[in-house]
Amino acid sequence: MKAAPHAQLRLIDLQDLDSSMDRLAHRRRTLPELAEIDRLEGRLAELRDAIVAAETESGDLAREQKKAEQDVDQVRSRAERDQKRLDSGQVTSAKDLSGLQAEIESLHRRQSDLEEVVLEIMERTEEADGRVAALRADQTAAQEELAAVVARRDASLKEIDEESGTTGTARTAVAKDVPDDLLGLYEKLRGQFGGVGAAKLFRGACQGCHLALNTVDLNRIRAAAQDEVLRCEECRRILVRTEESGL
Hints:
By secondary structure, the chain is mainly alpha-helical. Helices cover 75% and strands 5% of the residues. It has five helices and four strands. It has a four-stranded mixed beta sheet with strand order 2-1-4-3. The model has no long low-confidence stretch (mean pLDDT 92).
């Protein structure tokens, strides 16, 4: 393949721009904010589940407390009715009086036991409500942190997009200076060799594979016409001669 020396030199400019575009694309994919966003979104999902569980527990306890309080009220009402019967003097039989007094004492013990249950449920409810409040505070903090990280990500993406746009415009202009056949070969090699299709020959070494050329290869390059498109014998990338090639 033949191409004017200045067109070959433009390949290096094109390669520099493409490498910049590749670095920008890599930066876009590996922004630290992306991993942080994933972490925070995972944390928020965990908090949502924990809040649902804590609220469910709190609701269950509230219903349990209401039922226990109703039981206390029922026992208290029954004890009060029995006490009124006892105080009314309507019960005259010693046996009935003894039985009524025993029932009232039993109801008082039952009431006391149920009130203990209510207190225990109230303590558990307070703990559950405290967990809900703490989880919601954590959720708010995580949401605020996520919003801040998203803002940083968006700012970085905007910066990358602007730089990519400028670099892409420059690339388009440079690519017009490269013949189609040489440009096609360059693009093909870029796809094969990790994004690098052309490299300088610098002080006797290929800047694509960073290996020094042997004397035979250097002599072959010295003897080649200026418009001949050369390839590195080691990495097969296009090898561009410059004033610093060391020939």
